[in-house]
Write a structure and sequence with these properties.
alpha/beta; Rossmann fold; 3-stranded parallel beta sheet; two-stranded antiparallel ribbon
């Protein structure tokens, strides 16, 4: 939201400000409270995002697998406003995972997840990291940071410090 006063921000070699469209194409973001279109079901959300990112080939199998993994398959035809907070967070994660990206930004990704889903997400994030994705997440959970982080920073009273 704020331009840096010094330095350059690149995503997969694309400058965020001079090549904004291509840079953002490589970036997926899941806020701690995802927002959804009111007129689309969960399945339609996944389909819409897959089409927007031109990954329609194999969509059905990938979407079905993700929805089964995260326990949303039986509620795929519901609108997200009928979901619990944890289910909405899972859907937000699946929307990010259905499309290709080089960088994944997550804000409190386990805040509303049950223990089983949080463990599943951690394993999925480890796989993504091993496949070359960069993951930047914010969390109040020190165990999550310990499980996933190559580097941990703490922001306290406006100061950023290595932990």
């Amino acid at each position: 939201m704020l331009r840096p006063t010094t330095g350059v921000i690149t995503i997969d070699g694309h400058d965020l400000y001079t090549e904004e469209k291509e840079a953002k194409r490589q970036l997926a973001f899941v806020p701690d409270v995802p927002r959804f279109y009111t007129e689309l079901t969960a399945w339609e959300h996944l389909y819409f995002i897959a089409q927007a990112h031109q990954v329609g080939d194999g969509f059905t199998q990938k979407a079905e697998t993700l929805m089964h993994e995260f326990g949303l398959w039986d509620s795929r035809d519901l609108y997200p406003h009928n979901y619990s907070r944890g289910m909405r967070l899972k859907l937000g994660l699946l929307i990010a995972l259905i499309r290709p990206f080089k960088v994944l930004l997550l804000d409190e990704p386990t805040s509303a997840l049950d223990v089983e889903s949080a463990s599943l997400l951690v394993e999925r994030l480890k796989q993504l990291r091993q496949s070359g994705a960069s993951i930047l997440l914010s969390s109040h959970d020190p165990n999550l940071a310990k499980d996933l982080a190559d580097r941990t920073l703490r922001i306290q009273n406006g100061t950023v410090e290595d932990v």
